[in-house]
């Protein structure tokens, strides 16, 4: 039986290959941060956040991917172009998949991460669904809020903490 | 009931999140244990890409960004198979490719290594596997380059790859190395892989695809996480 090919870091120079148009390279992007076009989609939401390292420093060279399994929508964005080094996604709040609370699957890549990590983004204004979600309820209560995007006037805010007291919950999927 | 369960990462061959010799892992890798979740359709689905997403020269990095000539360096052809852990080929799956040029310089604006940019080489491309899981692309052999991890640190020649496979559990980002590279023994990124996994990242010179008077051939197979069908719940 062949063994899995080991992972290696995405490194600091992924942008012209994986997110070329976002970073201004002359190569067509396969995927962008618009899971939906916010101009056409009345229910569009904007999700933003920063990725923080173990000293609370904002990481400017991470790449975030999000997967909406309900609507089969995928997005990808690097944290190197926004003036605040945020990731920004235009999406819709997904419907339920297999009875779970609405959520996006999130995959995190960066220089200094030899293998990607998986997390999930839930929505603060879905408290009733969140309370019975089979994945959220696996997570110790005091860590659940790391998986829940806060509602703001501009949309949803979802910061990712790689380490520290607020370390985001990452999953073995 | 029957359900498809994908294997977890084989941690005997994958690098851990934190390996202190690779310094930027220290503050960037999760430190708390991963929470194991039951795979649902959230995990067992993923984006699908097809021919319509690819440009006609995406599979040929020696041609897809020429401006006033051909890129400099050693032309190579890289091929192989994408399969799962059961050896089953994964057809029509996307491989994204990026790399340094022959002088060891990336086009990325952050790369300030004092080596020339090649105006005819962007260093990125894409390819889909065929119905039997095979892929092939042309490029220029990438050069080694220095990095800031420690004094006199150099990355071995390598090509970066991003693969999707059938769903998001099979996502893989990795790097392919070249046989006999003397820098491998000093590279903390390569050495972060447990000893059992290291050979799996080194391509093989392949005379059978080497094209006379044109390009040297290398073979590199990708093995993504496999699955097993469980005939009934074993609680």
UniProtKB/TrEMBL annotation, chain A:
The keyword Oxidoreductase is assigned to this record: yes
SUPFAM superfamilies from the UniProt entry: Aromatic compound dioxygenase (SSF49482)
Top-level taxon of origin: Bacteria
Keywords, sorted A to Z = Dioxygenase, Oxidoreductase
Any single GO molecular-function term of the entry would be:
iron ion binding
> Phosphoprotein: is it a keyword of this entry?
no
Q: Which residues form a coiled coil?
A: none
> What is the name attached to this protein's record?
Protocatechuate 3,4-dioxygenase, alpha subunit
Organism from which the protein derives: Spirosoma fluviale
UniProtKB/TrEMBL annotation, chain B:
TM annotation in the entry = none
Q: Gene3D superfamilies attached here?
A: Aromatic compound dioxygenase
- GO biological-process terms attached to the record: 3,4-dihydroxybenzoate catabolic process
Is Oxidoreductase a UniProt keyword of this protein?
yes
Concerning InterPro entries, the annotation shows: Intradiol_dOase_C (IPR000627), Intradiol_dOase_core (IPR015889), Intradiol_RC_Dioxygenase (IPR050770), PCDO_beta_N (IPR024756), Protocat_dOase_b (IPR012785)
Query: Which terms does the record give in the GO molecular function aspect?
Result: ferric iron binding; protocatechuate 3,4-dioxygenase activity
Entry keywords, A to Z: Dioxygenase, Oxidoreductase
Boundaries of every Intradiol ring-cleavage dioxygenases domain copy: 78-106
Q: Which Pfam families match?
A: Dioxygenase_C (PF00775), PCDO_beta_N (PF12391)
Name the family the entry cites. Answer: Belongs to the intradiol ring-cleavage dioxygenase family.
- Under what name is this protein listed? Protocatechuate 3,4-dioxygenase, beta subunit
Upper taxonomic lineage: Bacteria, Pseudomonadati, Bacteroidota, Cytophagia, Cytophagales
